[in-house]
Amino acid sequence: TSGDIIYVVPSGSVYNATNVNKSLTIFGAGFNPDKTNSATSRCQNITISADNVRISGLVAGPIVQITGTVSGTMIDKCRINRISLLTNAGNTIIQNCVVGESTSGQNSIYGFDLTNTGVRIVNNINYGTSAGGWLNYLNNATIESNVFVGISGFPASEAFNIVQNSNIKNNIFFGVEPQGSNTLNYLNNTQQYNLSYGATDNSFITVTGGNTASDNIVGDPLFVNLPLATATVYYDLGFDAQLQAGSAAKGKGEGGIDIGAFGGPAPFDLHGTSLPVVQTVVAPSTVTQGTNMNVRVQGKGN
Question: Which of 40, 62, 88, 225 is deepest in the core (most CB within 10 A)?
Answer without folding.
Answer: 40
